[in-house]
Amino acid sequence: MGIPTSVLRAAGTAATIASLSACGHVSPQLPIAPVAPTVVLDRDSSWMSPDAAQVKTLLYVSDAQSYDVYIYSFPDLELKGKLTGFDRPEGECSDAGGDVWITDTQSREIVRFRHGGRKVEATLHDPIGFPVGCAIDRKSGDLAVTNLFGLSGGGSVMIYKKAAGTPRLYVNPGQYYYYFAGYDDKGDLYASGKSQTNRYRLSMLASRGRSMVSVSIKGPRIFDPGTVQWTGSTLLLGDQRCQRKKTSCLYEAVVSRRSVRITRRVPLSGSCDVAQVAFENGRFAGGDDWHCGPGHSSTDVWAYPRGGSPVRARTDIQVPIGATISNLP
Questions:
Q1: Which value, in Å, is the radius of gyration of the alpha carbons in the chain?
Q2: pLDDT per residue over 126-141, tens digit each?
Q3: Cα separation, 181 vs 193, whole angstroms
Q4: Most-buried pick from 28, 115, 285, 315 (CB within 10 A)?
Q5: Which sequence spans correspond to the domains of the chain?
Q6: Is the pLDDT of residue 167 over 70?
Q7: SS3 state at 21
């Protein structure tokens, strides 16, 4: 397995970048030149069901193979739309108003859509690296963006105050790659990733803090970084390669200052590679990238905290990565 592995080749340059999927064995090469978009960004092909904007809860799932983002009603998974015109969409997050932010890795942009909308409402540019994950502080409106790695070295976390303007950069010397991130109810930010020697790392930026620090983890070892999400009482940490096997799981963790203690493993039975899930009222959902065998990739809904086999699934997606749930305010 190893660090982020599905390798993307940038046309016209010698640079390569990697996705957050845990499949394969190829380590990412750091870019030696800025990466230009490798596809024509055609947003005119986006479509949305006429009632999508009135659906109370929508699930957004990015497809890094088709370069599209699928929108479903949640939890019944009725397809409500598809957003096009990306150059490798990966991580996603949503704010208190229902707006959805999507990281577009190869174009080095973070774009915002309204709940059930098909038009780009805002675009933020990543000045230093390749964005793959994001998180919104529901209280302050600040947007955190994780760079898998930078133009000339390791990754970072960028904070866009009120989701606008020029970001402030944060790094933890003990972490090199940055995957997904999530805020807790106090405004503390947690970001999953890996060290330069491929060990799982979790970093924290305290609310109003000036620097990121490493968080110690007590409990089972996590192998491939995944979801970071606050459920209201515990921190959910995803492992794309649970127990070093070709399956994924989630861990519930209790936070205590600069350490977390894992209290429960939530299995995702029959899964291959689940990168990011979104949690909502006793259920969670995300995509399962089925590169382990002859099965099909799918968008799944599981019961929480039971986990196990999905209670709903559909197979109209190819390489799912990011997921977020948007609610009408």
A1: 18
A2: 999 999 999 999 999 9
A3: 9
A4: 285
A5: 40-327
A6: yes
A7: coil
CA 218/CA 220 separation, integer angstroms:
7
DSSP 207-264: TT-SS-EE-EEESSPP-SEEEEEE-SSSEEEEETTGGGSSS-EEEEEEEETTEEEEEE
3-state SS track over 62-114: EECCCCEEEEEECCCCCEEEEECCCCCEEEEEECCCCCEEEEECCCCEEEEEC
Nearest-angstrom CA–CA distance, 126 and 39 = 18
Give the integer Cα–Cα distance in Å for 320 and 231.
22
Amino acid (one-letter) located at 83: L
Position of tokens 């108003």? 97
DSSP of 281-317 = TTEEEEEE---SSS---EEEEEETTT-SS-SEEE---
Mean pLDDT along residues 246-254: 97
Matching residue, tokens 């459920």: 231
Confidence check: pLDDT of 179 > 90: yes
Task: Answer whether 0.85 is exceeded by the pTM.
Answer: yes
CA angle 184, 185, 186 (to 5 degrees): 90
Please give the distance of CA 12 from its chain centroid, rounded to a whole number.
27
CATH class held by domain 40-327: mainly beta
> CA-CA distances (angstroms) from residue 239 to 75, 129, 170, 205, 218?
23, 24, 24, 21, 15
The structure tokens listed for 222 are 């996590």
Nearest to 101 by CA among 75, 74, 126, 73: 126
Lowest mean per-residue pLDDT among 43-52, 92-101, 183-192, 210-219: 43-52
